[in-house]
């Protein structure tokens, strides 16, 4: 049986809690390296494609060999809010591969990491679905 081709998404189409993210982007800039209390190393980077930009969190040595201008392919990553800001992650099951440099069209705006999402989008388990024709439930105080 032949494997189905990977479906790639654009950064501008990413949503909170999206899994199995496959996308191609260019690294715009890398932030400073931060050490956590447990000794792990974390680095943020700003990445973009032709639809939008977003912050990506790189753990341990994933970002060591990557530089601004590198074009990368993310396979099986995920997108989730951290402190209400959307961020892209490689994850344990994911991979990030450098596939080129400097020759990719991109935009810096909109920055998906700065978009304010609704409570329902950020807390899908706590939100109630409202069907067409129904009124939004009132919160009891």
From TrEMBL:
Keywords: DNA-binding
Domain of life: Eukaryota
A biological process from GO: double-strand break repair via homologous recombination
Cellular component GO terms, alphabetical: chromosome; SOSS complex
Gene3D superfamilies linked: Nucleic acid-binding proteins
SUPFAM superfamilies to which the protein is assigned, alphabetical: Nucleic acid-binding proteins
Pfam families registered for this protein in UniProt: tRNA_anti-codon (PF01336)
InterPro entries: NA-bd_OB-fold, NA-bd_OB_tRNA, SOSS-B
Domain spans labelled OB: 30-90
GO molecular function, one term: DNA binding
Protein name stated in the entry: OB fold-containing protein, nucleic acid binding
Organism: Planoprotostelium fungivorum
